Amino acid sequence: MLFNSYGFIFLFLPAVWLGFFALARIRSDYAATWLALASLFFYGYWNPVYLGLLLASISCNYLFGMWIAKAAARGDDAAKKRLLIVAIAINLLALCYYKYANFFLDSMNAVAGSDWTLWQIVLPLGISFYTFTQIAFLVDTWQGKVKEYNFTHYVLFVTYFPHLIAGPVLHHKEMMPQFAHPATYRINWNNVASGMMLFTLGLCKKVLMADALAPFATGIFDGIQQGAAHGVLPAMHEAWFGALAYTFQIYFDFSGYTDMALGIALMFGIRLPTNFNSPYKATSIIEFWRRWHMTLSRFLRDYLYIPLGGNRLGKARRYLNLMITMALGGLWHGAGWTFILWGLLHGIYLAINHLWREIFPATATGRWSWPARLIGGGLTFIAVVTAWVLFRANDVTHALVILKAMYGISDHADIVHALPEDLFKPRLKRLLVLSFIWVWLFPNSSRLRFIGHGYILTALQVIVVLYFLNAVLSHFGSYSPFLYFQF
Predict the structure, then answer these.
(1) What is the per-residue pLDDT across 458-475, written as a single tens digit (0 to 9) for each?
(2) Which of 37-41, 163-167, 190-194, 481-485 has the highest mean pLDDT?
(3) Do 83 and 204 reside in the same domain of the chain?
């Protein structure tokens, strides 16, 4: 079930919201159970077969969490560590099988010239997110940070439908105390109003911007691939148009999903952590990764980069740890060499950025003059756009064709398949101009939650929400899944 569908907006969300607060008037446990069951239905609606996998993952990790906690209570550190290692290994094996088995097998076949095959493996939605969320729970339990073990609340912690499919990646301490707090089970109209505004804004980003840019990004990338297959290379401006179209498509798609997830959660009195903070306004790659997919960046830092040694083992090891972390972060996004190379490229960016700050320590403070910030922001944006080409391209060869055209490295001819010239340039240019204005001049939408302690549900605000909702619904055509659903 998609957030941007009639069924979700007019049936599922109102029914779950009304049922939750109606049951909360009787007992909070009933309301929590209702929300957990609704979240499982939300997931199973896509494919009931994988609901069993999700439930098995939840049960297995909860049991291991209990065993780790009991070993800690006994003071048995060795048993506690063994249990943690086994539990993490089980999670990673399941993730590798469903997400990477075919990729590894195809890579081996390419190297060995063999023809080994597996049966078709369908990637379960959200497996990366709920696996990482539960690994964080296990590590937090091992570190003694987990204080509450209510099973219903744990199921909610993992499956809470606003974040289940595409994040954010949560820490136990960010969610479990909220489900145990009495205030969560009382309607807060300020939260409801703020949540409605945030949800509607996210829906606008998804439907009016991301989905409008998607045909251009797809048409240009596919057209360039078809042209390259026949020996015809793209012109520089078409390559840049395609890269920028995808750059803004993924921005509005992910930003829109994040706003919708935070808004829905807030309507139920739950505050999810901010996961997206205007990343294209970043003036360095370091700052970019503090703003883009913030909870994933935090997870990779806390559970991969720091355990590898972080910056404690010397400069050379620090840069190696950055490269390993970002390469694995790229692989997390998708089973393909383009994703790994995208991660490695960002690892190189980060290494250069850290080296620059060591040579010029003053640049680490962020207190630059406005020309310096403008140059830093421009270079960062160009670097990010360049990396998105690898992320979006169907294969490395296709990516290199586009990158060479973008930077004038090879001869080129003007070609864009599947996009009529009279339709292509005017509409795409307008969308790109609007995207630049939205990205750099508008404030981050998560600030809506903090203005004046929340919004009062006035008639004016209802009119605003209904107006934009009507504008979005009039553009509903075919339901378009969010890009991060596939990662």
Answers:
(1) 556 667 677 777 777 766
(2) 37-41
(3) no
Cβ neighbours of residue 340 under 8 Å, at least 6 residues apart? 327, 330, 331
Within-domain flag for 16: no
For range 209-224, the mean pLDDT: 88
Cβ-contact 42, 51 below 8 angstroms = no
In whole angstroms, give the CA distance from residue 198 to residue 206.
12
> Is 181 in the same domain as 216?
no
| Cα end-to-end distance, the chain, whole Å | 17
The distance from CA 233 to its chain's CA centroid, rounded to whole angstroms, is: 33
- Could you give the number of structural domains in the chain? 2
| Domain presence at residue 174 | yes
Please answer whether residues 4 and 475 qualify as being in contact, where contact means their C-beta atoms are separated by less than 8 angstroms. no
Q: Is residue 69 part of a domain?
A: yes
**What is the 8-class DSSP label of residue 114?**
-
pLDDT per position as a tens digit, 158-184: 999 998 877 788 888 888 888 888 888
Rounded to whole angstroms, the Cα distance separating 196 from 349 reads: 38
Q: Are residues 198 and 127 in the same domain?
A: no
Looking from the CA of 163 toward its CB, the CA atoms found within 13 Å total 30
Query: Using one digit for the tens of pLDDT, what is the confidence trace for 14-28?
Result: 999 999 999 999 999
Cα 280 from Cα 436, distance rounded (Å): 10
Last residue of a domain, one of 139, 157, 187: 187
Q: Are residues 133 and 56 in the same domain?
A: yes
Q: Is 139:17 a contact under the CB 8 Å cutoff?
A: no
Residues 105 and 235 in one domain: no
Instruction: Say what the pTM is.
Output: 0.88
The confidence band for 313, taking pLDDT boundaries of 50, 70 and 90, is: confident
Range(s) of the domain holding residue 71: 47-187
Q: Which of 154, 171, 187 is the last residue before a domain boundary? A: 187
| Position 48 pLDDT exceeds 90 | no
Q: How many helices (H) and strands (E) does the chain have?
A: 20, 0
Does some domain include residue 390? yes
Residues in contact with 443: Cβ distance below 8 Å, sequence separation at least 6, in sequence order:
278
Cβ-based neighbours of 119, under 8 Å, separated by 6 or more: none
Q: Are residues 235 and 89 in the same domain?
A: no
- Higher-pLDDT residue of 121 and 157 is 157
The more confident residue out of 223 and 156 is: 156
Residue 416 in this model has a pLDDT that exceeds 80: no
Model pLDDT, residue 60: 95
Q: How many CA atoms lie within 13 A of 371 on its CB side?
A: 0
- Do 198 and 98 share a structural domain? no
SS3 82: helix
Domain co-membership, 80 together with 178: yes
Q: Which residues are catalytic?
A: 333
Measured between alpha carbons, how far is residue 477 from residues 249, 370, 455, 466, 480 in Å?
17, 43, 31, 19, 9
